[in-house]
């Protein structure tokens, strides 16, 4: 089932159909409060180290594909968890590919004040992984990891099925706030149907 080869042209067509940004609207809860189906999935959702590094351990070819990055409004739940006064945000959405399969959809919400205080590097990552920047920055701290389930009918599940048409009942994601010198950003990562997390 997981040997499916993905047509990047098809994935790009599905991305073009999106009304950016896609978003991560769901009910988020700390890991201990959620009934998760398998120990393997729990391990991925609760990983406190760099997800980028762990993904790279499971594949020979790792690629970041940028879906979009723009200054657009953040969702209310994102503003709330950031504790921000909604003075502007950069939203970055990407796909993380492992061995030519899309494994993770990631959405980062970066307050403009964070960019101002930390410098332009975080805004100009391009196809470089955010995790490499965060986990190599001195003084970085990570908040509580929360998880969410995305079921059929949600926009994110529909997108996941469109680009990764494997039989799966639902998909799971996680989020946490990172801080560097008290400058916050919110990282949300959703495991797509082909991901190692479900195997």
From TrEMBL:
<dbReference type="GO" id="GO:0008813">
    <property type="term" value="F:chorismate lyase activity"/>
</dbReference>
<dbReference type="Pfam" id="PF04345">
    <property type="entry name" value="Chor_lyase"/>
</dbReference>
<dbReference type="GO" id="GO:0042866">
    <property type="term" value="P:pyruvate biosynthetic process"/>
</dbReference>
<protein>
    <recommendedName>
        <fullName>Probable chorismate pyruvate-lyase</fullName>
        <ecNumber>4.1.3.40</ecNumber>
    </recommendedName>
</protein>
<keyword id="KW-0670">Pyruvate</keyword>
<dbReference type="GO" id="GO:0005829">
    <property type="term" value="C:cytosol"/>
</dbReference>
<keyword id="KW-0831">Ubiquinone biosynthesis</keyword>
<keyword id="KW-0963">Cytoplasm</keyword>
<keyword id="KW-0456">Lyase</keyword>
<feature type="binding site">
    <location>
        <position position="130"/>
    </location>
    <ligand>
        <name>substrate</name>
    </ligand>
</feature>
<feature type="binding site">
    <location>
        <position position="92"/>
    </location>
    <ligand>
        <name>substrate</name>
    </ligand>
</feature>
<feature type="binding site">
    <location>
        <position position="189"/>
    </location>
    <ligand>
        <name>substrate</name>
    </ligand>
</feature>
<comment type="similarity">
    <text>Belongs to the UbiC family.</text>
</comment>
<comment type="function">
    <text>Removes the pyruvyl group from chorismate, with concomitant aromatization of the ring, to provide 4-hydroxybenzoate (4HB) for the ubiquinone pathway.</text>
</comment>
<dbReference type="GO" id="GO:0006744">
    <property type="term" value="P:ubiquinone biosynthetic process"/>
</dbReference>
<dbReference type="InterPro" id="IPR007440">
    <property type="entry name" value="Chorismate--pyruvate_lyase"/>
</dbReference>
<comment type="pathway">
    <text>Cofactor biosynthesis; ubiquinone biosynthesis.</text>
</comment>
<dbReference type="InterPro" id="IPR028978">
    <property type="entry name" value="Chorismate_lyase_/UTRA_dom_sf"/>
</dbReference>
């Amino acid at each position: 089932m997981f040997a499916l080869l993905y047509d990047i042209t098809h994935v790009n067509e599905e991305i073009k159909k999106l009304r950016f940004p896609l978003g991560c609207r769901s009910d988020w809860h700390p890991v201990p409060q959620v009934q998760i189906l398998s120990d393997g999935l729990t391990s991925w959702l609760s990983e406190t180290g760099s997800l980028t590094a762990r993904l790279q351990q499971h594949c020979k070819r790792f690629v970041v594909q940028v879906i979009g990055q723009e200054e657009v409004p953040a969702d209310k739940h994102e503003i709330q968890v950031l504790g921000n006064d909604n003075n502007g945000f950069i939203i970055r959405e990407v796909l993380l590919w492992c061995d030519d399969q899309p494994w993770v959809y990631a959405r980062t919400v970066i307050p403009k004040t964070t960019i101002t205080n930390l410098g332009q590097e975080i805004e100009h990552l391009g196809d470089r992984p955010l995790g490499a920047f965060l986990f190599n920055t001195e003084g970085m701290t990570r908040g509580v990891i929360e998880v969410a389930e995305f079921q059929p009918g949600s926009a994110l599940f529909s997108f996941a099925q469109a680009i990764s048409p494997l039989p799966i009942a639902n998909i799971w994601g996680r989020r946490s706030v990172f801080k560097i010198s008290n400058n916050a950003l919110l990282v949300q990562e959703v495991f797509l149907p082909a991901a190692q997390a479900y195997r």
